[in-house]
Each structure stands twice: as C-alpha cells, then as structure tokens.
Design brief:
8-stranded antiparallel β-sheet, about 5% helix, about 300 residues, mainly beta
Length: about 300
Amino acid sequence: MKEIAYQNINYIPSGSTLPDGRIVYRKLDTTLNDVFLLMNTSLGTTWTASAKIERPFKNGFNASGSYLYNRARSINDGTASTAGSNWANNPIGIDANNPPLTTSNNDARHRVNLTAVLPVPLGKGVRSTASFFYNGQTGRPYVILFNGNPNNDGRSNNDIAFIPATPDQVVVFNGTWDQLDAFINGDPASRNNRGTIPPRNAGRAPWFNQLDFRYAVNLPTYGRARVELTLDVFNLLNAFNKDWGWHYFPKFPNSSGNGLIGYGGIDAGTGKERLNLSTISSQTFQGTFDRDDLLSRATAQVGARIRF
C-alpha cells in the first residue's frame, strides 16, 4: 500500500554546498557509522495500458500483435536486501536523505509483441508448424554517476554526476573538454541535462529487438502416443546479421553508469569541481553500456517429446 523510504540520520547537512548545489554532509555522532530510519511514503505511482489484436484463420494460420505502455515512478525501488544497501545504492543528486520522485528502475515504457503461427503441411499424416515471436522493448533506465564521494555521505557509488554545459564550469584532467563534450553528446542520460545534476534514471539503454523461431513436426504413431520433434532458434535476427539482436544494459551498480566520471574534489585555484576523465578517455573504453553476451547471440536447441 505504501512505498518504502530510507534515511541515514547520522549524516546531517554540514551547512555548505558544492558548486553544483549538492549538499555536503557531516556525522551527527562521530562515534557511530550509519543510523538508518525506515519509513513509508505516499510518493510513487505506476500504471500500465495495453492493447492486443489477435486473428485466427481457417487454414490454421494465427497472428497477433500487442502494445504495452508503462510508467512507474518512485523515490527508492528497494532493490537490495538490507536497509544500508537500499539507502546507499539509490542514485541521488542534491540531498541523499530526501530523494525526489523520479522514474523507477521498473519503468518498462514501450513494449511491442508480434506472433505468427503458420501450418506447414508435409503430407502422409505428418503435420508441422512454424512459429515466430517478436519482442521489441525500451531499454532499462539509468543515469551517470560520479566515481567518488563529493557529498561526504560515506558512499562513493551513489552520487549522480554533474553534467557541465560549458568548459568554464568545471576543471577536467586525465582528458580534454572535447572528450567530455563528445561523451555527453552521445549519452542519452546526459545530453539533455547540461548544466544540472540529472534526475535518477534520466536516460534509457538502447531499444532492443528479439525474434524467436520454432519449427515443430508431429509424427503419426500407432495408438494414443504422439511424437513431436522441435527446433527452437532464439534471437534469430543475430543469425542473419552479427550486429542485430544485441541486448544492452546499464553498467553495475543498478541504474548507474558505474562511476564513468571521476570526482576529483574542488580546484584550489578556481573553486570549480574537478572531473577525472581517465575512464572515458581510455583507449579501451567501450561505451556507457555493456552488451549481454549470451542474450545477444543466436542460440538453438532441438527437442523430442512423446505424449501418451
């Protein structure tokens, strides 16, 4: 009935803020580490709308298509097993103890399903069918995080990165402004949030497509037994083209960019935030997203079934 909420009440505002507006914390009691307060909140909504069209034909051909649209918003999705992890792994911008209502990790957004079943007569009492299932879906939500602890809350993997609009807003090292600018322009969570700390889950991983195929043959037998031979091909698109059917997902931790931009503190000469670009400027950097190696490959299986 109510959404969950967490606060670490041993961390309180120190009275200072960073140039990007982020609250800096201090410990209320230095002899303690974490003191978590678990609460409920009325914030958070989710709703889903879907439509489906299905048509069977006299010759055994059957086709259907469906579309789903989902929106889900929350302040904390409770993805971990302990209060400490739920508080610490929730990406935040300004205030770690008062996260705003933003897009949930569970926001599915758009999904399209298409199915088709085609009878393939083989004669002499042998029946077979070819089936196709297509799933196209919006990628998972995420946001880019700092690698570091700019707000002094004792955690280095939960601070949403400030996205500069112009080179005079930050000091960059282990890279150039042009490299950072190119990264921001190519990142869905950052390019429309320049000059700000983006909201949690501001971007989405790429849309993915998957087409699965099954061919089933029913063999005539004596008595009541039925023999069925099957061939399943998962992610058939990848079998046609090695660059099709890829599944991308945001890097760990959940809903983050895994600290792709390092936080280097405040520059003594300018008073601006220092951003470490060693990750995104590396020659081995492969981009914001990871590719699921298994799901992105075409795989097949054969089967046999006897029904009595």
